[in-house]
C-alpha cells in the first residue's frame, strides 16, 4: 500500500464541502490526495470506482486508489486520484455557477421547487441554458442512480460540477467523482460498525431539516433502476453483500493491503460472469 509524505504541503481549500465537515485534501504532482474524515471514505471511493469499471456506464469517472497519507505527525488512511481537469479548464461547482449568474443560492432555490422531479428539472434547465451543454439531464440521472446503488448520502450542489475554459468561454462535463460517503462509510457518527445493517439502511436518507438540495434516491428499493448499468445478477449479488453486512469486511482492508481489494471485487462479479 502506498504511503506518501505530504508534510511539506498545506491542505487545499475544499470547494465541495459537505454537511459533515471538510476532508483534508492535497494536490501533489498531478494527483489529489484525500484523508479519511468520517470513517472509510477512501476505501469507499476505491470500491465504487472499481465497480464502475465493470459497469456499462457511458460517462467517464474518476479512478481512486486507496493510500495512506503522512502529514506532519499523523498518518491518515485515504485515497488518491489523478487531476482530471484538462488544460485551461477550471472546476466550477453548480452552486458557484448559479451564484455567478443569478446572485442566489442554487441549493435553496432548487429545494423550493417541491417534488424531487421538479428540483431536478429546475437544476437541469439552469445548467443547460447557462452552459449550452446538451443532455445534462442524462448525465445527472446516471449520477443519481449510481448514488442510489452505492448508498451515497452526500450528493449536493457543491459536488456536482462542470469544467469551464475562460479562454474560449466553453464548458465540459466532469467525470463522475466524489463517492466517499457511499457504502455506509460514515462509521464515526451515523453508521458505527456495531449498528445493525437494517438500522443503517433506514438511516440513509436526507435529513428533513435541510434546505441545501441534497439529492438522494432510496438506494435499495430503487436499485432495479440501475439495470442498464449492471446485470440483474450483479445487482442481486451486491444487495446480498449488503444483507451480509459486507461493510464489516471492507473495514478489514484498512489493516491489510490491496490484496484484499483484489480478492473482494471478483466476489461481487462472480454472478455477473456466470450470467
Looking at this protein, list some descriptive labels:
single chain; 275 residues; alpha+beta; 5-stranded mixed sheet; 3-stranded antiparallel sheet; 9 helices; 16% strand; globular; disordered C terminus
Task: Calculate the terminal CA-CA distance, rounded to whole Å.
Answer: 33 Å
Number of strands: 8
Mean pLDDT: 77
Number of helices: 9
Radius of gyration: 19 Å
Q: Which series of helices and strands comes N to C?
A: EEEHEEEHHHHEEHHHH
Beta content comes to 15-25%
Shape: globular
- Portion of residues within helices: 25-40%
Uncertain spans: 206-214, 216-230, 253-261, 263-275
Largest sheet: 5 strands, mixed
Task: Give the spatial strand order of the biggest sheet.
Answer: 1-4-5-3-2
Instruction: Output the structural class.
Output: alpha+beta
Summarize the topology:
Elements (H helix, E strand, L loop, with lengths): L2 E3 L19 E4 L2 E5 L5 H12 L11 E8 L2 E9 L6 E5 H9 L3 H6 L4 H16 L4 H14 L11 E5 L4 E4 L23 H7 L28 H12 L3 H6 L5 H17 L1
Parallel strand pairs: 1-4
Antiparallel strand pairs: 2-3, 3-5, 4-5, 6-7, 7-8
Offer a quick outline of the entry.
The chain is α+β, with helices and mostly antiparallel strands and 275 residues long.
Amino acid at each position: 500500500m502506498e504511503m506518501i509524505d505530504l508534510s511539506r504541503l498545506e491542505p487545499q481549500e475544499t470547494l465541495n464541502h459537505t454537511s459533515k465537515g471538510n476532508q483534508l485534501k492535497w494536490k501533489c504532482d498531478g494527483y489529489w490526495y484525500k484523508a479519511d474524515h468520517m470513517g472509510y471514505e477512501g476505501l469507499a471511493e476505491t470500491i465504487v470506482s472499481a465497480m464502475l469499471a465493470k459497469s456499462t456506464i457511458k460517462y467517464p469517472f474518476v479512478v481512486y486508489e486507496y493510500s495512506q497519507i503522512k502529514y506532519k505527525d499523523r498518518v491518515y488512511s485515504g485515497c488518491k486520484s489523478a487531476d482530471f481537469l484538462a488544460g485551461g479548464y477550471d472546476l466550477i461547482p453548480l452552486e458557484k455557477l448559479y451564484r455567478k449568474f443569478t446572485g442566489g443560492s442554487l441549493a435553496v432555490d432548487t429545494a423550493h421547487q417541491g417534488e424531487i422531479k421538479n428540483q431536478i428539472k429546475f437544476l437541469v434547465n439552469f445548467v443547460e441554458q447557462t452552459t449550452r451543454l446538451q443532455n445534462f439531464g442524462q448525465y445527472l440521472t446516471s449520477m443519481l442512480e449510481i448514488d442510489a446503488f452505492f448508498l451515497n448520502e452526500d450528493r449536493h450542489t457543491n459536488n456536482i460540477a462542470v469544467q469551464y475554459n475562460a479562454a474560449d468561454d466553453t464548458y465540459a462535463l466532469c467525470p463522475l467523482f466524489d463517492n466517499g460517503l457511499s457504502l455506509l462509510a460514515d462509521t464515526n457518527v451515523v453508521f458505527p460498525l456495531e449498528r445493525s445493517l437494517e438500522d443503517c439502511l433506514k438511516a440513509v436518507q436526507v435529513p428533513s431539516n435541510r434546505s441545501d438540495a441534497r439529492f438522494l434516491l432510496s438506494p435499495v428499493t430503487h436499485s432495479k433502476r440501475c439495470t442498464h448499468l449492471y446485470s440483474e445478477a450483479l445487482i442481486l449479488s451486491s444487495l446480498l453483500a449488503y444483507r451480509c453486512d459486507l461493510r464489516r469486511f471492507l473495514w478489514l482492508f484498512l489493516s491489510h493491503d490491496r490484496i484484499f481489494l483484489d480478492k473482494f471485487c471478483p466476489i461481487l462479479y462472480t454472478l455477473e460472469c456466470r450470467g
